[in-house]
Amino acid sequence: MLKFTLITIFPHMLDSALGHSILKKAQEKGLIEVEQVDLRAYTHDRHHVTDDSPYGGGQGMVMKPEPLAAAIEDARRKNAQARVILLAPQGRVFNQSAAARLANEKEIVLICGRYEGIDERVKTFVDEELSIGDYTLTGGEPAANVVIDAVARLIPGVLGNENSPAEDSFSDGLLEYPQYTRPEDFRGMKVPEVLLSGDHEKIAQWRREQSVTLTRQRRPDLLTNSDFKISAKTQAAQAAVYVALVHYPVYDKNHHVVTTAVTNMDIHDISRSGRTYGVKGFYVVTPVKALQKLALKIIDHWETGYGSEYNVTRKQALEITRIANCLDDVIIDIERESGEKPAIVVTSARPMGVRTSFAALRDMLNNKTRPFLIIFGTGWGLTETIISQSDYVLEAVEGYTDYNHLSVRSAAAIILDRLMGRQG
Ligand code: JFT
């Protein structure tokens, strides 16, 4: 049983809201009680005045301290365990976790002011100040209405189904998935096939993906404080991303097509960046057998050899690393693994025509259309042939200087963070 006491100059303002449906039943069942106290009962003048003009001048009126203090003291006398809350635009913003916290109280006193606010000294009589959000109201009553509603529905028995609050929007930090009911076809708009399938596991997965994608698109702020549980969900909703590091064909500094050497540091660092950001596979592309062997030795050492026991995190990173003869083999491998041809994204530090922004590609990855292959060149960059065969040329990573000689492993880390990193 949770008892709310409202202190207000409009003791009937919430009658209608409390007199219907769920909150009405909750009171009938004795799960909550709401008492509305008329602040004017604590005035001693003939006109029951509760407001006065502000010291220092300015427009409007301010709530006088004496009636409010007397009403709070009386409420504390009658409700010994009460938590006294002042609704105020300056209060901490009320959210789902505040609602959950208040649902554990026995007694809550809500002070609802009017006009331009209350005398500052009344704040020493309260336990906390709450605002219901960043918009302006005419007074505290509508805010109290919101607090009562959000808190009451968390009390066991108030909602028919006892475990449904756990499935709400916000309770796991995500927005809720889209809902449908009959008819199956409404004016040409069909209910998503998966919901008709009867496959409960598939339905649960679809809903989770919808929640994550919607939250990323509309309320990314809800994801920033999230834990690893949510980042794993986020991952599930993202397109499969593959990375290729091409050693042939690339240009040398004289614009000749050459094969570059495979380097230990590129393989290690791009593997680790790829593993960090959730890349599905990292392909080291070289037609030179000796260099393939070298790459394999690097991977194998850390995957299965002495290094795998000595450094477990590096083993995990290199698990995504693969060797390929040429880009065509990479594309075939991705198609075999994911069932679809990847969209090809190339990167280049050289100036060129139309480029896709990081934000646009990030959106495409979140909308999970098809797998993506991001190709990085070595030496002086990817050849025109590869660039002309790509679907997207990603914008360049640039500073504000005329010097642009990032190593490919640095560029890869920056680009993966922009496309797949958690954004503060
Ligand atoms: C608003 C409130 C707001 C808001 C208590 C009292 C007077 C009106 C007002 C509005 C702006 C500036 C006074 C209140 C709230 C919110 C709570 C009062 N007003 N000064 N709670 N939650 N978002 N606005 Cl007293």
Layout of strands and helices, then pairs:
Elements: E1 2-8, H1 15-18, H2 21-28, E2 32-38, E3 51-52, E4 62-63, H3 65-78, E5 83-93, H4 96-102, E6 107-111, E7 128-131, H5 141-152, E8 185-186, E9 189-190, H6 193-196, H7 200-218, H8 221-224, H9 228-237, E10 241-246, E11 250-251, E12 257-258, H10 264-277, E13 281-285, H11 289-303, H12 306-310, H13 312-318, E14 321-324, H14 327-338, E15 343-346, H15 358-366, E16 372-377, H16 384-388, E17 392-393, H17 408-420
Parallel strand pairs: 1-2, 1-6, 5-6, 5-7, 10-13, 10-16, 13-14, 15-16, 15-17
Antiparallel strand pairs: 3-4, 8-9, 11-12
Helix pairs in contact: 7-9, 10-13, 10-17, 15-17
Ligand JFT is lined by residues 87-89, 113-114, 116-118, 131-133, 135-140, 143.
Ligands (ions, cofactors included): ligand JFT
In percent, how much strand structure appears in the residues? Answer: 15-25%
Order of the strands making up the biggest sheet = 14-13-10-16-15-17
**Number of strand elements:** 17
How widely separated are the two ends? 41 Å
User: Using only CA atoms, what is the Rg?
Assistant: 31 Å
Instruction: Let me know the largest β-sheet.
Output: 6 strands, parallel
Number of helices: 17
Structural class: alpha/beta
